[in-house]
Known about the structure:
This protein is an alpha/beta fold. It is built from eleven helices and twelve strands.
Amino acid sequence: MTLPAFPAHLAAMGASPYSSLAARAAASGREVCAFHVGDTWMEPAPGARMQDLSVEDFPGMHAYTDVAGWAPLRDALAAREVERTGVPTSPAEVLLTAGGTAGLAAAASALLAEGDEVLVLAPYWPLIAGMVRVAHGVPVEVPFFVPSAGPDPRVDPAAATALLDRYWTPRARVLYVNSPHNPTGTVLPRAVLAALAAWAQSRGLWIWSDEVYAQLCWGGVHHPMRPMAPERTLGVHSFSKAYGMAGNRCGWLVGPAEVLAEVRKVSVHTVYGAPTASQVAAFRALSVAGEWSERLRDQYAATARHAAETLGLPEPAGSTFLFFDVAHRLDARGLTGFLTDAADRGILLAPGPSFGPYPTHVRLCFTAVPPDRARRGLAVLADLLRGRS
C-alpha cells in the first residue's frame, strides 16, 4: 500500500537545526559542555518559580485564560512597552504566545501567502527560516552580520540599505531583524535600525523585530524598532532568556491591534494560548526579578568576556553567543569532523549551516552551563582550536 507523500515545502527542513552529537559527547567520559543550545543554567528568580505559585494565590492558574493572554500580564506588558519605547500601547496591542517562537510562527502564517519572501538578515536564528517555509513563504538570506569586503552594514546605514536593495524582489513582504543578535552577539546602532525601518516603509514591508535579548546587552545600547515604524512593526519578546524561563514557553508580541487580531487567529488554531501558569510566573517575574536580572546580566557579561578572551575572539556586545570560523581547523572531513572531535572532548557546538550559508562556522552559547564548567569547557575548546590534543 502506498502512503501519501510528505509536503514538498518541508523537504529542506531537518528535525533539529542543532548538533546531533549529544550521545557521542555523553559517551566520551569527559565533562559535557552543551554549548550548542541557547539556554541559561540559572533558575528563575525566587518568587517567580513554579514552586512559588499556588492556587490559593492565583485561583484558576490551571484553567484556560483569555487566548490573547492573562489580563494582568497584558496590562503590565503594555505599560512596560510605553515606558520602554514611548509608543502609546494598549493591552489590545499585546498578544501572549507560547514563547517568542510560537509568536513568530503565528505571524508567519497570518501575514504570508504562498511564495511571499521574507528578507532574513544572516546569519540568523535557525528556526525563523523553517517558520517561513512552514507558512509556504520563502526565506531570503541577506549576508549582513559576518564582516565581508566593503562597507559594513552593521554600522553603516547606507551600506545596510544598499545590501537590502540587492536582495529585494516584488515578492518580498517582510524584513526580519534581530538585535541583540543570535548568533553573533551584535547590537545594531540606532542609525542602522532607523535606516532599515525607513527602507521597509519605502518598500511597503512588515518588520518583525526579534528583541528577545534586549535585556542582555552590555557592549552597546539596545534600541527598540517599534518607535521607528509602529504601524508595521511586530516586536517579538520572551521571558525565556532574561528571566531564565525557557521551559515555561511564555513570550509576547507587540504591534498594531488589527495585525495581532489576525495573528491571534493562527495562534488559537495551533497552540490556543500560552500556558496560564507560565503567564502567572512571568507576571511575578516582572516585579521580583530586578536584582536577580542585574546579577544575571553581570554574570553573562563576565562569561562573555572570558569566552572571547579564551578563544581569541571579539567580545560580543549582547545576547549569549559567539559565532566564529573554524576553517583553519578543518580537515578532509569538513565541519562534521571538527564537531565530532569536539564532541569526543565533551564539547557540543551548533553547526554554522544551521544559521545560513556558513559551512565553516560554529555557534557557542556561553550561558548554557554554569560559569565554572563553561571555563573548563572553553579551555578544552581553545586547545582543540590550537591543534592541541
